[in-house]
Amino acid sequence: MIRLIPTTVADEAIKDLYEQAFPEEERRPWDQQLMLIASGKLHLLRIVSDNIFAGFIFYWRLPGFSFIEHFAIHPGTRGGGAGTQVMLLMEAELGGIVLEVEPPVTEQAIRRISFYERLGYQAFTESYHQPSYYPHYPPLELRLMQKGLRPGTAAFQTIKGSLYKHVYNQ
Q1: pLDDT classification of 77: cutoffs 50, 70, 90
Q2: Is the overall model pTM greater than 0.85, yes or no?
Q3: Cα–Cα 20 to 30 A to 152, which of 7, 9, 70, 158?
Q4: Which residues, other chains included, contact 47 with Cβ-Cβ below 8 Å and sequence gap of 6+?
């Protein structure tokens, strides 16, 4: 059974999976991550399956939607429907959700996009670049996907503006 446990403690298991699951250019420096959690701006859910650590979700509650910034399932838990269960629980809790995915140019990115599409997420067609977490990396080309929101250019611009303002301080 999958459970999502709200926590303000990002322990070593979460940190290790965060660093394994996301390349440096896709993750915020850990000390900044911890400060955002402590401030209450960034929310952390510990994913537990049968009382064993199974992953995490970092997310933001923003005006009009929630933004899942980082979501990872532990490799030992993957493949059994845990990711689907987690996303269904998140949708029930949060309602409208926005997330970022890599462009569909690698097999892994295509699988990830297909996973979200099977759950009913739709990609915006507009160009999107995630502001860099580090000065030595350029902005990262990504795609925004959403579920439970009104798609369209006006909604995209509003969502992008909210992400840039609240998440990336731009």
Answers
A1: confident
A2: yes
A3: 70
A4: 2, 3, 4, 5, 53, 54, 55, 56, 57, 73, 77, 82, 86
